[in-house]
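Feature request, filed as a ticket because there's no other form

It would be nice if the structure record came with a short human-readable summary line next to the tokens. Right now we just get the raw output. Example of a typical job, pasted below so the devs can see what we mean:
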Amino acid sequence: MVIEPGVSTGSVQLQFLNSSTTEIKGILLTASDFVSDTTRRPLGAKVTFAKEGESAGKPTLEHAALASGQSLMVRLDVANLWESGEAAVALHNHAEKVGTLKAMKYRLPFNVKVDSAATGVPEITFLKGETKKIVLKNDDPVTYVVSWQLSAAGASYDGRGQITIPPNGTRAITVDPGVWFSPWYSRLIRFRWFTSLFKDEILDGLLTLNFQSPGSPDSTTWPGKEVPVKAKLQPWSEFGRGVGSNVAIIVLLVFGAFLSFLFHIGLPNQSQRADLHEDLRNLGRRISGVSRRVDSRLRLLVAVERARLSSTLTSGLVISPDMTNVFARCSQAKSKLERQIQILENVDRDHDWIEKLAGEQCLPTTIKRIEMAIWKAAEFVHRYSPSEEDLAAAEKQLADVNKLLEAAGTISAELKKELLDRASELDTALKQFTEDDDKRIKERFRYLLDIVTQYLVERGKTPAVEPTPYQIMELDQASLRLEILRDYLRCYHSSGDKQQKAIKEHEEDLFTVLGRNSREALRAASRLVRQMQEGIYVADLMSAKPESVSIEVEPQQVRAIEMTRFSLRFEDPQLHDAAAREDLAFFWKFGDELSERGSAVSHYFANPVGYKIEVTCRAPDGAERKLEHHVAVKPGEKTWLPDRNKAELQKLGIALVPALFAMVAGARDQFMKMDLAAGLLTTVAFGFTSDTVKNLMAPKAAAAAPAAQPAQPAKPPPAAGSPPEEAKPKAKVAGA
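Raw output as currently delivered:
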């Protein structure tokens, strides 16, 4: 270092480098007294240390730790070094010597500095890939031959050769700054590439200048100085910086706008979507609670609609302002679906009441009327997406069913007249069959004929004798069975010899069933008579050739989450439409752990894969026949929402891009006033709180949907052993 002759003081910047592989902890720098190289005596100079940024020095310098490969910049100040010549001082870390500093005090002033208009530490700007010229100014009336070195951030650039600076003149040195621009991957890791888009990277450096005497090659004996400088690094060109910084700000603004959409729209939409999904799950549980007494098509219609609504909710873009309208439409469809499910639950409940009424000895004719009314109600919702008119008609029909149930135990005058007319017609019709076989058959069922005859006799008296409820029950049951007997006799007499022979073979079966007093027996007898009329029996269906029987699938192209109808098809039209099919039990398996019963069933598949369909046909005698069919389920048709999402994103992009460009300038000004972290947060907040973004988020009001009619409330389930109070037959019928 060089000591100024006039003031006997000097200052030098020292760089202590930890070249070991381990961290050095508890650093304590001290200096001994300067010792003259000439006299070898201590000079009593004052030595102080100061870290970078400190103004006043201390005799010792403490530093917590220095990692491997890192350096510590220290300013060493010397005062009271009055003796001219050269002197040395030993530097220690604790008791360990770490170096020797040589001080030179000559009469040569060596007032060479960086020529800069700014006061204080000169600032030098370096562009990546371009050399930089630094002008040195000589304020002395002496010519200096100078060697130089520029160091910063642990890297240095040595000047090539020497320069000669004339008295009170200037000379330029050329610096290649490549050593201070790290490779792109290193800059990426350290995030410097991003910060340099907005602010220059400024490093503390030292420009070391040494006087070179032409006659003495040993520069250590001649004056020199270290000039502190600020090295400003610019890795981007002005154009690249402008483009890159604008892109970065736009990205930050977009991120802020996205967070704004997420906070103001996404989270509320997600909450509303979760509520709707929970409602749909509850509807799914209600659908699962509908028994198989309700036609599988009706159950599948509501199940498919529920799955479609769930898929619509899932496929929507949660940050889209239009999701409010989507939710409104889904809510409207959900309300309609609730009404459909309520109708099915009421149909199912009414079937349960019928079973209760049958156990209470209700009139079979009344039960048939109620069953027909329930069937009509179900027909209104038998189509896909029934209209409001269909739902209203079904609810009205179920209300009529409730009235029939309430009056189930009452025998009206109209019903009595109907029973009288039926009895009279049967009495007349059966008298026409006078052959020996007819007489034998009528004699077998004489007890039924007597019930009808006695009723007609009692009604023919003057005044007419009013029958008891028990007599009316007997008459209704007897007349229904005699109607089947009448149809049998008509069928037998209108058939040819071959068909009569087949009828005779099943005659005893018919009479056995007619001898049972139950609803199922009446149905079985009626089906058997229809088989006799058609000449096709269960055995004919079970013995049909395998190639003439197949599983029919509608539609032929099966898609996921769409209803598919399966039925057993006989190629022979007479077999296909035969009444004997009703005596067969059909058990279906769809390859997805679900099953169904019925001649024709409906099902939907959740996944677009292949499935094996199996159906087992079981005859009343236990004989079985199995068929298989393989279906390839294709993906369901895409809903309108994905395309809608694209349109929404395009609309948002078109509206957002001009707004973002308008906000770039203001955001850039805010960014440049702050450090990196604060600038990032401020820019994101700028995009989050922008009025333009908030205006884009304002959803259009959904079109007012017509108010859905309230669904028919479900009646409470009947108590075990009896129908509900309003549907319970009168005690006199039940007691009878």
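Something like this underneath would help us a lot:
The two ends are 130 Å apart (CA to CA).
The domain at 542-632 is CATH 2.60.40.10 (Immunoglobulin-like).
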